[in-house]
Design goal:
Binding site for Zn(2+): 8, 10, 188, 269
Active site: 191 (proton donor)
Order of helices and strands: EHHHHEHHHEHEHEHEHEHHEHHHH
Largest sheet: 8 strands, parallel
Helix content: 40-55%
CATH architecture: Alpha-Beta Barrel
GO cellular component, one term: cytosol
Bound molecules: adenine, zinc ion
Number of strands: 8
Structural class: alpha/beta
Protein name: Adenine deaminase
CATH topology: TIM Barrel
Strand order of the largest sheet: 1-2-3-4-5-6-7-8
CATH superfamily: Metal-dependent hydrolases
Cofactor: Zn(2+)
Shape: globular
Strand content: 15-25%
Radius of gyration: 18 Å
Number of helices: 17
Number of domains: 1
């Protein structure tokens, strides 16, 4: 199994249907689905928002530290089978705070498992607090201050949720504050939003990595810049197909992105919702797009080099 780093993963997007039902039962929560089949029947998405609606609704079952810890352990166990040896995991604190779940509950639940992930699963990990771009910058700033005050073990911040209409520049102060606090910075851009959002994320927010970024291919000048600057793009093929950012796997731009020299990696985004983990993404790329072993090795090396792992860990994995 090729060792890879997973750089684009929402921990809440790893909540599998079986675990949703198990946690609902444990917490005495009644779900609006009679059984697993009825829940699975909802996993037909028309765009990003149609997915986000279900993704946020299903978070209702996450109530205690143990719930967050169980979800995290389940992801790490599955990711280890996929060859993941380093993972940078996003958590959406605002999505839990708005449901009345305290910050300490979600952060500690995930972080307590990540603290021993290398020994337990062979996966070095770090945690990234992602902010919801369809909420206000004030809300994000307040949560960031709280995270800093509690010395939450976060390595960086990200920006996710509904992209179109919520350009990166809306969060200029948030990212400046995070930079001042010594945090790494990444943002979703160019998933559904235009190439200009990628430029804004780089120039206004100062991000080091772009999550998705597939729409850069519409702007040759931007592509040239991204190639020159070796900007990492964390691409998620199955996600793009399921959220209809692309028509089908056969039409996915990843081979073209590789061909022009972009620094792309393969990631699973929300694997419980999009039909598979990192290994499933690689398998689809190989079977549908004929990605060669050489391409796969290059993609895996890109993921490790583009990670925020220590130089020592990167050397170990390369
Ligand atoms: N939150 C979880 N998955 C996401 C995605 N693919 N895009 C934006 N926000 C998300
Ligand atoms: Zn994402």
């Amino acid at each position: 199994m090729l060792p890879v780093a997973e750089l684009h993963l929402h921990i809440e997007g790893t909540l599998e249907p079986e675990l949703i039902f198990a946690l609902a039962e444990r917490n005495g929560i009644s779900l609006p689905y009679a059984d697993l089949d009825e829940l699975r029947a909802r996993y037909e998405f028309t765009d990003l928002q149609s997915f986000l609606d279900l993704y946020y609704a299903n978070m209702a079952v996450l109530q205690t530290e143990q719930d967050f810890a169980d979800m995290t352990r389940a992801y790490l166990a599955r990711a280890a089978l996929a060859g993941v040896r380093h993972a940078e995991i996003m958590l959406d604190p605002q999505a839990h705070l708005s449901r009345g779940v305290p910050l300490v509950t979600c952060v500690n639940g995930v972080a307590s498992v990540l603290a021993t992930s290398e020994g337990d699963y062979g996966i070095s990990t770090l945690l990234i607090a992602a902010f919801l771009r369809d909420q206000s910058e004030e809300s994000a700033l307040a949560v960031l201050e709280e995270l800093l005050a509690m010395q939450a073990p976060i390595a960086g911040i990200g920006l996710d949720s509904a992209e179109v209409g919520n350009p990166p520049a809306k969060f200029e102060r948030l990212f400046a504050r995070a930079g001042d606090a010594g945090l790494r910075r990444i943002a979703h851009a160019g998933e559904e939003g235009p190439p200009s959002y990628i430029i804004e994320a780089l120039d206004v927010l100062g991000v080091e990595r772009i999550d998705h970024g597939i729409r850069c291919m519409e702007d040759p000048e931007l592509v040239e810049r991204l190639v020159e600057e070796l900007t990492p793009l964390t691409v998620c093929p199955l996600s793009n197909v399921r959220l209809r950012a692309v028509d089908d796997m056969a039409g996915h731009p990843l081979p073209a992105m590789l061909a022009v020299g972009l620094n792309v990696s393969v990631n699973s985004d929300d694997p419980a919702y999009f039909g598979g983990y990192v290994d499933d993404n690689f398998a689809q790329l190989a079977s549908v797009l004929g990605l060669s072993e050489f391409d796969c090795v290059r993609l895996a090396a890109n993921s490790i080099r583009s990670s925020f792992a220590s130089e020592e860990r990167k050397t170990e994995l390369l």
